[in-house]
TrEMBL record:
GO term, biological process aspect, one: L-histidine biosynthetic process
SUPFAM superfamilies named among the record's database cross-references: PHP domain-like
Highest classification ranks of the organism: Bacteria, Bacillati, Bacillota, Bacilli, Bacillales
PHP domain boundaries: 3-198
This protein's name: Histidinol-phosphatase
Length: 265
């Protein structure tokens, strides 16, 4: 019983729910291990493309976040294992900045995730899970949904194979996040093989896969990231899957659990 992907009051686009609230919910849900994986500060020279610039924790809050998670970990250590971690963005072209950050702070983290939220189009950077409108703009900027998907899965592959130093996060985050609005903007034909192509690279880099229930709760997605046929394939490839609620509220924990194949965990 483990949840490897939980946000915190340090998330600027999340809720103010306290760490205690998350941990109490975890205990009530029967978890033995959880990871707080707040959005890591973005590289200083990268401009957050979302209007509120609130995709990630700011650098000035970061040390306080680490201290607070460590306190919570120690406070509950007889009841539950709590990992201090981060959800780190893989951003193409910023590998050096990401590696420098991880070299410095990675030793203080024990379970982190590497995710792709940002893609560079013809004219702009896009945050692909921000809103249906922003997704639409990304489709236009990429010249169609096929190019957008193919760029997304290329970044997933790059994230798996990138050299981000010895503290590279050990798990690929929500590998089919690009499907968040697929009921509005249907996925292009052949997307399944684009997604599956990244599995050998994930295996090869000995990373795990975030089996993320949050997509289940999104009205235009209604499936986990990744959906079960890909989760099964990952499992058969020998990639360990770790359930993640991606909760941004204590209430959001256990998201999508009923559709997660427990036998693959
Ligand atoms: Zn978030
Ligand atoms: Zn994420």
């Amino acid at each position: 019983m483990r949840d490897g992907h939980i946000h915190s009051p340090f998330c600027p686009h999340g809720s103010r729910d306290s760490f205690d609230k998350y941990v109490e919910k975890a205990l009530r849900s029967g978890y033995r291990t959880i990871s707080f994986t707040e959005h890591a500060p973005l590289p200083a020279n990268f401009e957050d493309p979302v209007p509120g610039k609130d995709s990630a924790m700011s650098m000035k809050d970061f040390e306080n976040y680490l201290e607070t998670v460590n306190k919570v970990r120690d406070l509950y250590k007889t009841d539950i294992t709590i990992h201090p971690g981060l959800e780190v963005d893989y951003i193409q072209g910023y590998e050096r900045e990401i590696r420098d950050f991880l070299d410095e702070y990675g030793p203080h983290l024990s379970d982190s995730i590497l995710s792709v939220h940002f893609l560079k189009g013809e004219s702009f950077w896009h945050c692909i899970d921000y809103s249906p409108e922003a997704f639409r703009q990304a489709v236009d900027d990429f010249g169609g949904i096929h190019s957008l998907y193919s760029a997304y899965f290329r970044q997933i592959r790059h994230s798996a194979s990138a050299d981000l130093g010895s503290c590279k996060p050990g798990r690929v985050g929500h590998m089919t996040l690009i499907r968040k609005f697929h009921h509005l903007y249907p996925s292009p034909e052949g997307w399944e093989s684009m997604a599956e192509e990244s599995l050998p690279l994930i295996k090869c880099s000995t990373m795990e896969l975030d089996y993320n229930g949050a997509g289940m709760m999104k009205e235009y997605c209604t499936e986990p990231y990744p959906p079960s046929f890909i989760a099964l394939k990952a499992h058969e490839t020998g990639i360990p899957l770790v359930y993640g609620s991606d909760a941004h509220t204590a209430k959001g924990m256990n998201a999508g659990k009923e559709l997660i194949r427990q036998d693959l965990l």
